[in-house]
Prior knowledge:
Layout: H1 12-29, H2 33-37, H3 41-65, H4 71-74, H5 76-87, H6 93-108, H7 114-127, E1 137-140, E2 146-148, H8 157-163, H9 169-180, E3 197-198
Antiparallel strand pairs: 1-2, 1-3
Amino acid sequence: MNDPHQPEPGYPALAEDLLDRAQRAKEHWRTPGAERLGMSPHALAALAQTQHDNAAGLKRIVERLGQWPGRSTVGADACQAAVDIAVHADHDPALQRTLLGLLRRAVEAGDATSAQLAHLHDRCLVNVGQAQMYGTQHWYRPDGLLEPHPIADRAQLDTRRAGAGLPPYTEQTRRLRERHGPLASLSVSAAAEPAPLPERNAA
Length: 203
């Protein structure tokens, strides 16, 4: 939702592009587990094409701006849309890592949030088989239940989340249950997982 107190973006056409891309993909991102597992090959191919197109579009915008499309250039909503697109660019890990570096610099400049960085950082870790730091990434088990990818140093998880501006993990699991169904036991192996599912709107 647009905030009436937000300054107008310096690049409104780019902002609109990012928002449109994220909106078109949002229905797939929010598909509950049982429905996602039952998607037809045609629907899965369409989703993959959307992810590829979105990533290519974000790459062009980054190249045009020479930086992350942050709040000062495209506004807060489109900045979040760019984060959502980057998080789902799993087919191009090199691009994801490049975007992570650009987003980190935007956070340092006050042009994006630490919570946004936490989501993309976790996604990049999960995609190379490493434990995530903030507990933002989850996957659907074959039975349709939602499971977190492995999390580093669970005892300090909420401390790290608080430092990134994220709510306690128990609060986030409640939101995920409301949106996607039950959260599975943390003890179940995540060795053969589908594509990760990020938290939504946690920034």
